[in-house]
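Issue: copy button drops trailing tokens. Both records pasted manually instead:
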Amino acid sequence: MQRPNFELLRDAFAIIDGIPDSAINLWTWRQKGHEPACGTIACAAGWLAMHPSMNELGLRSRSSVDGMPETESASGFSALRGFFGLNFDSQNIFEGKGWGYKDRELGGRIDDLSEKQLWKRRVLRLFQEYNEPFDPKVGEGLHLDARGQ
């Protein structure tokens, strides 16, 4: 089984952690403009594709208005899968609310989380699945105890 690139996922987690909740919408790559600016709304993947450190590593935002992430050889979810070393199941950390990695575990509690919190929970659940260590403080309030449904 392919192991995700947890070093890159840690970097991605830190980047998204610094973006306001109100600027995250998991249903769109990017809205409003070609660059991150006041009023820009994007999903986690959209924000990561605009971030300079991710750009240096080969993930970028397609120049069209939608901002789809791309690499040298792929775009969209295929690009994310290859860049972060994800499989078809774990690539769903980037899906819309209710469709993402381990979202079903939450049941009605999914509505308790902002889209940013939901994305962070998905990443940390992936860490849990691979017994990859993380600071428990970053998981507070993310319902990481809701498992196995």
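Record 2 (pasted manually too):
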Amino acid sequence: MRKGLPDRRFLIAFAVAAILAIFSNNIDDNVVIIDKNPPCLGNRTLLEIRAPAASAAASMSKARVYADVNVLRPKEYWDYESLTVQWGDQDDYEVVRKVGRGKYSEVFEGINTNSSERCVIKILKPVKKKKIKREIKILQNLCGGPNIIKLLDIVRDQHSKTPSLIFEYVNSTDFKILYPTLTDYDIRYYIYELLKALDYCHSQGIMHRDVKPHNVMIDHDLRKLRLIDWGLAEFYHPGKEYNVRVASRYFKGPELLVDLQDYDYSLDMWSLGCMLAGMIFRKEPFFYGHDNHDQLVKIAKAIDFLDKLLRYDHQDRLTAREAMAHPYFFQVRAAENSRMRTQ
């Protein structure tokens, strides 16, 4: 128990309440206006949030599932700083064209000169060695997991020592083009496939911390999905305080926005909820039912699912495994079970 710190739920709820109060002027007894027009803020209102007398101390936040995965595993599994990287030969790969760039890397389509197979070459920008080791260690630990992008090789330039990661190639379509064309069933199918990847990485004691459409590659012709970019991913340890400067702004959970550092896997579930909302609410029509009853059922299932993901308190959110069992995915599960029976 950490004395003197406000309760986790109180912090999040009151941060949200304070923000809402600014816009609605509906300020309750726990929010006090200090100065309606402080000089440094122009016309904005400065608020003070009173801490409650009774619930000022709270127990440590801990993941509801997979909390002790790394506690029970040997140190070599999660101690990425001790990783010795085995470098491959960069001359085995040739750059074909640039396909993207990010804060920490530039990404190219490439070719393996020995096998003539296409690949993706992620050339890393100068960052701390331990960050590179963390990404490599996590990718190695997750190798073979469902819908996790496969790391094929690790190479570096002999002169500049610039490291590059070699990945399997996915013939993906830009999400801004693809998403508006997806059917209701397609959306459920791909979110279900993404949940498989998240449940697996969580079960291995790893948080992705940057779930967003840009990091979900979809080959729609092959109906193949891969979760990519594990550069911000981290091993989960109960009680550890993490950097809140992770995830992309529009997909950040409330816990990050109020600087709650002892977050967990549930951060990824908020990001998934934001991604799903973007997919279904940009569609026209939002919900396509065969009749009035079917229309109502489709709306109810989707909204209920989103409601259980987009919870302010991260410990109230569905886990990835719980999400996969939600009625929203009934058709997807039925189709998958049918395929398995016929194989």
